[in-house]
Write a structure and sequence with these properties.
Helices cover 31% and strands 23% of the residues. It has helices spanning 10-17, 28-39, 85-94, 121-138, 152-161, 180-186, 197-203, 221-231, 306-319, 346-364, and strands at residues 22-26, 43-47, 59-63, 73-76, 105-109, 141-145, 167-170, 189-193, 210-213, 236-237, 251-254, 258-266, 273-283, 290-294, 330-338, 366-369.
Length: 380
């Protein structure tokens, strides 16, 4: 690729002469940068489909609907995002005033037109009418926010449409901080336009029912994402009822056995933090939970820290690694590691255990497990 080294200016050319240990990029433009850095010795991670062979990266992370596959491809149901139980708890803390709004609280997340979806004031009118009817019937409040793609005409109508209804409406930075995290944290139900894979991924990481508006307007790869959520009953089309439905968080387990290392080593003056563990991690039988064992030889990891490693593994499994989905049904065996006579601690080995489990997910990938229910059916 003649001249590619100068595609991003002098600063990037300097980075090529002294490449970092790890380069992470997102999107097609960044794909060129990370590919060039890998050619100079950096480990390279590409997020989203680079539209060329994945062999140019050490790891490619892409949503399931991109239909990528390969030994170095990690697929997710939707997009990468930070939403999990801890994130939602922080959002509720930071936007505590929203708790005073009457229930049911309906969060409205508005996107905009894209290559794969149409969006206009007519769609907004339909959404507003259905939400307005539900609030008139049940009471409650509306918590609405827009995205950078939302047309100005829709923003203007949004500012007027819910006047007189309890809630909050955010249409831009002139309204202060976007309360979007608080909307996800406090919502009893969420209405989201179907054009946004990112907002739908984040909404479906909560424990609130999610309704998509404008599904029929979406085509291409995002359509496959919507179909996947609909088939799992994690998403339903917007209607005039907005009836509550039970939400069972999607869970996942490891796709294959792997041996991984978790290394938590920090030195910042005084006592540092030192914990290194080697784990054998494998999918377990359905319903087995997290089964932890150890086969450490020669005291490489002192027995006083075996429980610390287990705590770290279990905490990370409960949080999940992406999309807030807990990891279940795993066999985890501590087989080796390293300790420091001064800097090793309970906290350091908890962190090492958590890091190792995250490495296992990156190396092996995961399989989403469908929620199971026991149902008694009575027929005449």
């Amino acid at each position: 690729m003649p001249g590619a080294a100068h595609a991003f200016g002098d600063g990037f050319a300097d980075a090529l002469s002294d490449p970092p240990a790890l380069a992470i990029g997102c999107g097609r433009q960044a794909a060129l940068a990370t590919r060039l850095l890998r050619a100079r010795g950096a480990k390279a991670v590409q997020i989203l489909d680079p539209r060329v062979s994945t062999r140019h990266w050490d790891l490619v992370i892409a949503p399931e609907h991109d239909a990528l596959s390969g030994p170095n491809v990690l697929t997710l149901l939707g997009s990468l995002h930070p939403v999990d139980d801890l994130w939602l708890a922080a959002a509720r803390r930071d936007f505590a005033s929203l708790a005073k709004l009457p229930q049911p609280r309906t969060a409205l997340l508005l996107g905009g037109a894209s290559t794969h979806a149409a969006f206009d004031t007519a769609l907004f009118g339909q959404i507003a009418a259905q939400i307005g009817a539900a609030v008139a019937r049940e009471g409650g409040s509306v918590l609405a926010t827009t995205s950078r793609r939302t047309p100005e005409a829709v923003r203007a109508r949004l500012r007027e449409r819910f006047i007189g209804i309890p809630g909050v409406v955010w249409t831009g930075s002139e309204g202060g901080e976007n309360p979007y995290p608080g909307l996800l944290g406090w919502a009893d139900r969420i209405v989201c336009t179907a054009d946004s894979v990112n907002m739908l991924s984040e909404a479906c990481a909560t424990d609130a029912p999610v309704f998509a508006a404008g599904i029929e307007r979406v085509r291409g790869r995002p359509k496959r994402f919507l179909e996947s959520l609909l088939s799992r009953d994690r998403l339903r089309p917007l209607d005039g009822v907005l009836a509550h439905y039970p939400v069972v968080p999607l869970r996942e387990t490891l796709a294959r056995p792997v041996t991984v290392t978790g290394r938590h080593v920090k030195q910042s003056g005084g006592h540092g933090q030192y914990g290194v563990v080697v784990l054998e991690v494998a999918p377990g039988p359905p319903g087995s939970g997290i089964v932890f064992d150890q086969r450490v030889v020669g005291g490489a990891v002192p027995s006083t820290f075996h429980g610390s490693v287990e705590k770290g593994v279990r905490a990370q499994a409960e949080r999940g690694v992406h999309e807030g989905r807990p990891l279940v049904d795993l066999s985890v065996v501590l087989v080796d590691g390293k300790a420091h006579s001064v800097d090793s601690s309970d906290a350091a080995f908890q962190a090492a255990g958590a890091l190792a489990l995250r490495e296992a997910v990156a190396a092996a990938g995961t399989v989403v497990l469908e929620p199971w229910c026991d149902v008694d059916v009575h027929v005449p």
